[in-house]
Design brief:
This protein is α/β, with parallel strands linked by helices. The protein has two domains: 242 residues, 3-Layer(aba) Sandwich (Aspartate Aminotransferase, domain 2), CATH 3.40.640.10; 124 residues, Alpha-Beta Complex (Aspartate Aminotransferase, domain 1), CATH 3.90.1150. Helices cover 38% and strands 15% of the residues. The strands form four sheets. A seven-stranded mixed beta sheet has the order 1-9-8-5-4-2-3, with helices on both faces. The longest helix is centred in the last third of the chain and has 19 residues. It is globular and about 70 Å long.
Length: 372
């Protein structure tokens, strides 16, 4: 069994993938060509955003969003300590200070009720992370940001296709709520490339144009650099691959949701674990299916010994990472994030996962808790 089977997915669409790759090679245009343009348009339509800009990675999507908004030294950006390192790394790389706020213990997303206390005169933006495929409480976050005059930068790297019903009663897609939405197409994502790839969505035309300049490094016209940027263009080959895979995304997300539902139903009798909580008015895309148990480490060892691959997302909160020691946080500052880091365990989930493998995971978990 695999944690995620990428080769199986490739086999299902091999002819289309190979055709697009060969077409790019034969065409000889490898940087910012027709495939990138078509993929940007597709993501804009899907996320209901006016503009999309393809970049090198999800990390660069966040970094260029911050840079385009001129967030820099002396500024503060509020985010969660329970996420992948890149979220806060990008803030630090602009010279700004990451300011952490603890998580909601049910969704594992930033606790919106605690954000206002963290706002200072230096705060320029709030960066919620839509962890595991479920959107953060964007109703509350939007209300706070609007009242305080702050930007919202959505880290939607794990949440392409996720959506939630907003205060006006309308459903809104991840990546369309903030000033920018930042997506990753890392191979293991719900929509994955064959390498690094990312996208920034926005409804701000001037910001979109600025990001396009920043990715190329600071130029609109070849050899004429108006601002200092970076080299962060979405590769034409990756865009060609993503254009093949993109039409399957809704189906793949639906399959993930069905597998998640089956997991939750079959594990409901195991009282020692907590299955994923889906907040009201949220469409969860289950990039990860993450359970929680006080016996996490023992369960992980047992499952791996029995051929069940699992993963921990994430074992050390950002405020306790050695790289962020300079921020002055200490153990005990964000108790919910720390507890989650000790207890979460992600189970295998991918669209092509069959029922036999699903039930094998369930049976092994049940067997473990019968023994302890």
């Amino acid at each position: 069994m695999k944690f995620i089977d990428l080769t199986n997915q490739y086999k299902l669409i091999k002819k289309q993938i190979d055709k697009n790759i060969i077409s790019v090679i034969k065409g000889g245009n490898f940087i910012l060509g027709e495939n990138v343009d078509n993929f940007e348009k597709a993501i804009s339509k899907f996320t209901e955003s006016k503009y999309s800009v393809g970049v090198n990675s999800g990390t660069d999507a966040i970094f260029l969003s911050l840079k385009a908004l001129e967030i820099s030294k002396g500024d503060e950006v509020i985010t969660t300590p329970f996420t992948f390192f890149a979220t806060a790394e990008t803030i630090a790389n602009t010279g700004a200070k990451p300011v952490f706020v603890d998580i909601n213990p049910n969704t594992y997303n930033i606790d919106a009720s605690k954000i206002e206390k963290a706002i200072t005169k230096k705060t320029k933006a709030i960066m919620p992370v839509h962890l595991y495929g479920q959107m953060a409480n964007m109703k509350k976050i939007t209300q706070i940001a609007n009242s305080k005059g702050l930007y919202i930068i959505e880290d939607a790297a794990q949440a392409l296709g996720a959506k939630m019903r907003m205060a006006n009663g309308k459903w809104q897609m991840a990546g369309s709520v903030g000033i920018t939405g930042c997506f990753s197409f890392f191979p293991t994502k719900n929509l994955g490339a064959f390498g690094d790839a990312g996208m920034i969505t926005t409804n701000d035309e001037k910001l979109a144009e600025k990001i396009k300049m920043l990715r190329s490094p600071g130029s609109r016209k070849k050899y004429n650099h108006e601002i200092i940027g970076v080299n962060s263009r979405l590769d034409e080959l990756q865009a060609a691959i993503l254009n093949v895979k993109f039409p399957y995304l809704r189906k793949w997300n639906d399959l993930r949701r069905k597998i998640a539902h089956a997991y939750t139903k079959n594990l409901s009798s195991v009282k020692q674990i907590k299955t994923p909580f889906v907040a009201d008015n949220n469409y969860h895309t289950f990039h990860q299916y993450t359970i929680r148990t006080k016996h996490r480490d023992e369960l992980k060892e047992y499952l791996e010994k029995n051929g069940i691959p699992v993963a921990i997302h994430y074992s050390l909160p950002l405020h306790l990472q050695p790289a962020f020691k300079y921020l002055g946080y200490k153990k005990g500052d964000f108790l919910e994030a720390e507890k989650a880091a000790d207890e979460v365990l992600s189970l295998p989930i991918y669209p092509e996962m069959d029922k036999k493998n699903q039930m094998e995971v369930v049976d092994k978990i049940k067997n473990f808790f019968k023994v302890i």
